[in-house]
Specification:
Blueprint: E1 17-21, H1 25-31, H2 36-56, E2 61-68, H3 76-92, H4 94-99, E3 103-107, H5 115-128, E4 135-142, H6 144-160, H7 171-175, E5 188-191, E6 210-213, H8 223-234
This protein binds 3-methylbut-3-enyl trihydrogen diphosphate (2 copies) and magnesium ion.
């Protein structure tokens, strides 16, 4: 059935928080006979277009999976290239982030990132801290299980210090110990390059996210593909364990 925004079964509204597993840079490059790093470089243009589009649509938060805790297993040269690309991105995109009133944040084990990246992350976060538009979050050296384990350690410390009674640990209290306690749960989780897996991304937060898998590689994921994902989301009925609103 063709979607109409006022159709009672569809939620019809825009997602407040979109999270994206940006995948397929290497395959995009290989298809063109280029080196993998060229795919990462072109992927930056998708990051820019998707960010600007989300910001213009007044999406409240965009979280991008840019480097997983598992990605250190890649060849040293690729990891080095990704880190230097990230550093350059943070410097070059800062004026656009400011122009668009975006508040920049990052999650993950950031202290393990190279010093140059940490410096630019700090600069971009600080300079944009008072911006009131969309929150853009990069997940870097991020792993969902590590985040949950780190939260458990932080809770255990609070219990140990006599600040928290174990009987008061609820999902709400637990979430306050995640990397970004302010982060809302993603409503829409997009993965590109046709892969049907979660790859350790926002395991806690995405427990009720709507999944959308796009077949295009990340460097080809631009405004039309984003619109397709958002439109699919608008047609979903979110029940959260309840019953259909359909009569
Ligand atoms: C996503 O593209 C970028 C990162 C994970 C950093 P890939 O590099 O995973 O590309 P494929 O999956 O090998 O095509
Ligand atoms: C997931 O992509 C991580 C990021 C997008 C940063 P990968 O390409 O690393 O995922 P797997 O290993 O194929 O699942
Ligand atoms: Mg991949």
């Amino acid at each position: 059935m063709k979607h109409k925004p006022d159709q009672p079964s569809a939620n019809g509204i825009l997602p407040k928080h979109i999270a994206i597993i940006m995948d397929g840079n290497g395959r995009w490059a290989r298809e063109r006979g280029l080196r993998r790093v060229k795919g990462h470089e072109e992927g930056i243009n998708s990051v820019r277009e998707v960010t600007e589009t989300c910001s213009a649509m007044k999406i409240r938060q965009l979280t991008l999976y840019a480097f997983s805790a598992e990605n250190w297993k890649r060849p040293k040269t690729e990891v080095f290239y990704l880190m230097s690309l990230l550093e350059r991105y943070l410097i070059h995109e800062r004026p656009t982030i400011m122009k668009d009133n975006i508040r920049f944040t990052a999650i993950g084990r950031l202290n393990k990132l190279p010093a140059g990246v940490r410096r630019e992350l700090k600069n971009t976060s600080e300079v944009s801290a008072r911006n009131t538009g969309m929150v853009m979050c990069l997940a870097l050296n991020y792993g969902g299980r590590t985040e949950i384990a780190d939260a458990a350690r932080s809770l255990a410390k609070a219990v140990d210090a006599g600040e928290l009674n174990p009987s008061r640990i609820t999902p709400r209290v637990f979430a306050k110990h995640l990397y970004d306690p302010q982060m809302s749960d993603p409503d829409l989780l997009i993965r590109t390059a046709g892969e049907m897996r979660w790859s350790n991304f926002l395991l806690w937060q995405a427990s009720y996210a709507e999944f959308f898998v796009s077949n295009v590689f990340w460097p080809d994921f631009r405004e039309p593909q984003l619109m397709e994902a958002i439109e699919a989301y608008r047609q979903r009925e979110r029940r959260f364990g309840g019953l259909s609103r359909k009569p």
